[in-house]
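TL;DR need structure tokens for one chain.
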Amino acid sequence: MSTPTATDLRLRRSDEIQGDILAGFRKDNVSVLFLKFEDAARARDWLRRLVPQIATTRQVATFNEAFSEARSASGGDDPKSLTATWLGVSFTYEGMRMLSATDPFAQAPPIGSGLEAFKEGSAQRAGALGDSGDNSPENWLFGNGRNQPVHALLKISADSEKDLQAAIEAQRIAAAEARVLIAYQQNAQTLLGSRRGKEHFGFKDGISEPGVRFFDRPDPNNPDEVEGHRGTRIIPAGEFICGEDNDPFSFPKDQYPDWTRNGSFQVVRRLAQDVPGWWSQVSVKLQELRLAKAVPDNATTEWLAARMVGRWRSGAPVCKHQDRDTPNDPTSSNDNDFDFRDDLEGLVTPLWSHLRKTSPRAALQEDPSHPPFDPNALDGRRIMRRGTPYGSPFDPASEGPGGPDDPRGLLFICYQADIARQFEFIQADWMDQPDFPPKRNPVPGKDPVTQEAPDVDFESRDPDGTVKHTLLSFQQFVRTTGSVYAFMPSVSTLKALCDGRLTGGSGQTTGQPTGQPTDQTTGQTQQGGGGQAASGKAYPCDEFLAVPDQQRRGGQSQYWVFHADRCRRISVADGSSHTDHVVDGDTGLTAWTCLQGVGRVDCVLPMPDLQNPDGKSWYWVFHSTAGRQQYRAVSITCGGGSTTSAVERQDRDLGAWNSLGGVDRMDCFLPVPDQQRVGGKSWYWAFHTTGGRQRYRLVSVADGAAHTDVCERTDRELSQWGSLNGLSRVDCFLPVPDCQRVGGRSEFWCFSGQSYRRISIADGSGHPDRLVSGDRSCDAWSSLL
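>> reply
TL;DR here they are.
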């Protein structure tokens, strides 16, 4: 990795990277137009006229530097003569597909990646982010898939309200001429007077933004921090700009599609804030703490609110100013030089405070008995925030704008290279997770500033020195009222989209999906899947499902193959070559009645005693949305050449399975060959991902209406299987159709990424396994191309 120097600021000079990602627009007046394309050719014409108006990083960075110098020279006043209006454009997955007339992903995005998050979109991943109930997509003003679809977002930022309105009008005319519809418009504006720089609850915002390598000047004495901003760490640029070097534990930069280079993934959310409710609850909770003798006698609502946020209204950190705010100290209001290492228990700044939930800094522990992680361990979780308040500030005396029921909130915008690893992880695994930081007793609770928090653990110390725990419950002050995932392309990719193509004329990825093992072909015979390889690349398989009435009929067995949001039907022949071919090409999952609302099938488990009685078979289908897995019961009826399906029981959480306790996500089931429906019970090896690593356990499912399940043996590592040596995960297994229980052994093709191998499992005690043939590319399967 390159070592930055004080003059290595090449990203500041970029005419490829759009402005606002690294060089924030920093304007008081903002509008985002959510656009729908009616006609692809006209949309390209609209984009062709728009591209010359798009602000680049060089333009915005140069302007911002000149503006800062002029403000310093004038004693802190904004220079009235130095103004600009900036435009930035981004696209949803559907918008890019429409403009390029092709799928931006030549292969299904890797499971769990930010690419998958972008393709699925915000509404499909809402449940795992806490966007349910009043926050659910059905109540959103945009981005829910029920109102007008969103194909593009145009952000307009200006110094004055007059300049903003002029720019909006010009863009409205341009859109109308190209038959580009404005599905929604959201205006936002910096609050005025003493509220300037603050959000509607009254707290200074945007203090903790990270520095970026090759953009921000490193401190000569500490190159890990931004010059003039102690405590502001410099983060690898690849955490925000695709194609740049990133954190070693992040998604590999060479596995992004070519069209992402010099671009960034964008999250836009409309967050409504209940300001009267916020301050009312703060007051009530303070009284509860006083009754519990858990706060000092002089504690005020400001004191408690500051601990909920982690900073006082001015921005001064609570950890450095425990008793009172310092509104007249500009140094304190911009202070980032702290890390909570001297407050690991959260007695000063609560563990559940917004500041610690969104950025634990250098005080995050694996558990309380372990030392904190190094500061750079969390570099891959940072985001670049560009939010602006919308609506009038709350004025208790007002009966019009500014009244308690007036719409107000935050137009939240952030940029990152990986939506799943960065924004979604912070939202779901930190802010919305009661048990974060982990392994505390009692658990800290959710972030009460942004989430509904039934219980947070307020820690205090009694006069005798013992730690006291007081539970507080908060209702929700912030609601999600709109959300969109988009991609802000480079200028080169914008120009390619104008011509109906992606950068380089293809959507091919560079490199292979994460998790693919190295090809280690052993040269043994009978590699399996012996179809003739065609041109193109095989996709990774999520699951194979046997077509119930088409197993070993005429020497052929048919299977449905699930991959991403699609499914195809293939056949595999008996015999040494096991020739395979496509029976029916790809269709979307929405073509299946039983899979409505499913974005990806993770794995399927047939109900052992309900396979094809009277032509109807039952299954449990495990599927994920935004990293949260659920399962449903479905049925498939085959006969007379036709297939129908139905949902027999709606989605439930994995917690309903006794045998899957503690499992984050089920990846696949492998039946124990000689233990199927023996004594009314069927046994399976259950491969699952938990804590980011795949393991397996042994479970059983009983016949009967209840299908009682039991964990027969707890988790073990994949290394226990000699036949799986070298694999860090398994995606799915496919039984070799004519090699089941033959001579006391059963053979399976084992798929991992874009490779597969062939293994065998013996009947009897211990079920010894061995590798039949080593890894080969899935390209060898003509039916998977």
